[in-house]
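Changelog-adjacent note: as of this version, every example in the card shows the full chain rather than a window. The one below runs 99 residues end to end.
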Amino acid sequence: HYAKVFTEFLPEEELLPMAVAIGRVFTQRGERKLRMKARMKFLVEKLGIEEFKRLVYEERQKLEYDPRWHEYLNHLHDTDESPLLPPSGAAARPLPGGL
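Full-length structure tokens:
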């Protein structure tokens, strides 16, 4: 299955609520009997991407606002790390055979 584009752009504060909405649509409409068919790709194939999107946006409208959906954005870099040692010179040398 080739991937289908759900939307060209989604604001970062919409990532979590849209993921919840997608999960709800999958829970409501996805396959329950055959484990091999219990995949999002099969649901999208069955409904078509436009109907799937319509259901997701409909479900998104039902979700009440939750500040946790975007509060985490203020803390994304709280756990950033830097390397303990500088890179060695070996990484700068070309690989044998031009690889």
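Structural remarks: The radius of gyration is 21 Å.
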